[in-house]
Amino acid sequence: MYKILSKRMLTPVTKLFEVEAPLVAQKAQPGQFVIVRIRPEGERIPLTVADFSPERGAVTIIVQEVGKTTQMMGRLKEGDCILDFLGPLGRPAEIRGSGSVVCVGGGFGVAPIFPIARALYRRGVSVTSIIGARTRELVILEEEVKAVSHRLFVTTDDGSYARRGLVTDVLQELIEAKDPIDEVIAIGPMVMMRAVAETTRPYGIKTFVSMDPIMVDGTGMCGACRVEVGGKTRFACVDGPIFDAHQVDFALAQKRGKMYAAEQQRAMAEPGPCGGAGGSPCH
Q1: What angle do CA 254, 257, 263 make, to 5 degrees?
Q2: What's the average pLDDT block by block, 10 residues per block, for the chain (283 residues)?
């Protein structure tokens, strides 16, 4: 059992949890993830490591309530325990030691882009961060990302905060202004990562994305997380989750991501383990 040390609401549907997991905290690196299960009969879900403190033995995860399990997690409180907290899993991000990198975080993707930006910043890399969300109330970790960036641009789709538009609008302007960009790292919704890849492709700018497909065991055994990269099948849990964006078959990845939409809808309609539509695990 893994105790929740603290909980913070970032948006109405996005919660930050600091979890007591000393062994995971000792080994975690930017770009990796954990697999979490909150009750014996529940599903296993992958969550990116948003922060980690070996000194405190704590790992930070951020949960966006988009399905039944994440809604149940959102109801957990400080002092509650998570049943399983497996990790760190996946290959860490490759952190270069020089040059200029643009970190792009869309919506929930700002959480995993933060530790990568921080690692780059600490190594002396020039970091430009672009973060975006649909609306003002969904912008997360702005101050945290700002603290580890030499420049920060914030966009909202509806213009309710900062600049109106998409993260790719800013990226395109930086490219056209001939800003020195050695690498772009983008994490967020599949459609956003695909758009970033297409924005940088004509200019030959090295671009990486973090894939978040359906996942079960996280060790390469089940094959559920397979993605096609460079015409070859790769498993996001052991070969990734970070891949060359210009080699990813996004169309196939988006199609696979919708495979269990009907099952998810049925699960959302079923009574929760403690009655009602969800709630904390029974004790």
Answers
A1: 145
A2: 96 95 97 93 90 97 90 95 95 96 96 97 98 96 98 97 97 96 97 97 98 83 89 94 97 78 68 44 42
Give the DSSP letter of residue 208: E
Residue 7 CB-half CA count within 13 A: 16
Q: What strands lie across the sheet with 81-82, from one edge to the other? A: 81-82, 2-11, 14-20, 58-64, 45-53, 33-37, 84-89
**Domains of the chain (ranges, CATH numbers):** 2-90 (2.40.30.10), 100-257 (3.40.50.80)
Q: In what order do the strands lie in the sheet with 126-133?
A: 163-164, 151-156, 126-133, 100-106, 183-187, 207-210, 242-244
What share of residues in the chain are helix, strand, coil (percent, to 5)? 30, 30, 40
Distance, CA of 243 to chain centre: 14
Query: Which is it for the CA torsion 248, 187, 124, 28, positive or negative?
Result: negative
Cα distance between residue 163 and residue 18, in whole Å: 31
The Cβ of residue 191 has, within 10 Å, a number of other Cβ atoms equal to 11
Q: To 10 degrees, what angle do helices 167-176 and 190-200 make? A: 10
